[in-house]
Design a protein that fits this description.
about 250 residues, alpha/beta, TIM Barrel, eight-stranded parallel beta barrel, 9 strands, about 20% strand, globular
């Protein structure tokens, strides 16, 4: 059994402010196989890396990303809330993250944050940028708004997509097949060996979130999930190495 990919959730967000360049650099330093991030569209059409639709939780600013220009968003401090050492961290652009990971072998999970706000054309903007950086083979697009996954496949049938969801679905691999999705991205509570076997039968990958406890990491790695999305990539890497050995490589 191959060891799972370890994705740093919003970067190594257990150690640095989420969805900042500091968190993404920390994830790379820790040896994460991939990073997970969230994207919105600013008022002037830039792909903004942030989890929430508004800025007030993770910056010292306020307002909806959709109503603000890049220049306005950049005025705010996105790091001080986490710790004094991160004062001055800015909300990044997707391009900046791609600049960071392009020279590496790191995988990328882009969550499109359509839903509460609908961003017309965001799927094409994301895919065009991924193409510009030649990262198609290392990227998976995920979303809770499954229309975005369908649209992404229309734009590029070869781009990988992952179905984000919370509830415990019956035979979710059938839904993934209907959407022509490559993966399911369920909350980790819903996964057992039968779930993994059902997905494996149809070639559906499983990247599960947000797995922060070592006991859960061990269980999920042991039953064969494809990827573990965690705020603590160092803990997950240590755990899977214990199970699979330091020499176990991802193919």
């Amino acid at each position: 059994m191959e060891r799972p990919h370890i994705f740093a959730h919003r970067g190594a967000s257990g150690y640095a402010p989420e969805n900042t360049m500091a968190a993404f650099r920390k994830a790379l330093e820790m040896g994460a196989d991939g990073i997970e991030l969230d994207v919105h569209l600013s008022k002037d059409g830039h792909l903004i890396v942030c989890h929430d639709e508004t800025l007030q939780r993770t910056t010292d600013g306020m307002g909806w990303i959709k109503d603000l220009t890049l220049e306005e968003i950049r005025k705010y401090d996105g790091g001080s809330w986490f710790g004094e050492g991160f004062q001055g961290e800015k909300v990044p652009l997707l391009e900046e993250v791609l600049d960071l990971i392009q020279p590496t072998k790191v995988l990328l999970n882009v969550e499109i944050k359509n839903g509460i706000v609908i961003y017309p054309g965001i799927e094409r903007r994301v895919i065009n940028l991924i193409r510009r950086y030649a990262l198609e083979e290392r990227t998976i697009i995920s979303s809770f708004y499954h229309h975005s996954l369908v649209e992404s496949k229309k734009i590029d049938p070869l781009i990988k997509t992952g179905v984000l969801y919370v509830a415990g679905w019956v035979e979710p691999w059938e839904y993934a097949r209907k959407l022509q999705a490559d993966a399911l991205h369920p909350a980790y509570h819903n996964i057992d060996a039968a779930f993994v076997e059902g997905c494996r039968t149809y070639g559906i990958e499983i990247n599960t979130y947000t797995v922060n406890e070592e006991i859960d990491m061990k269980r999920l790695a042991g039953i064969g999930v494809t990827g573990i999305i965690t705020n603590y990539p160092d803990k997950a890497i240590c755990m899977v190495h214990q199970l699979h050995g330091n020499a176990a490589e991802i193919k």
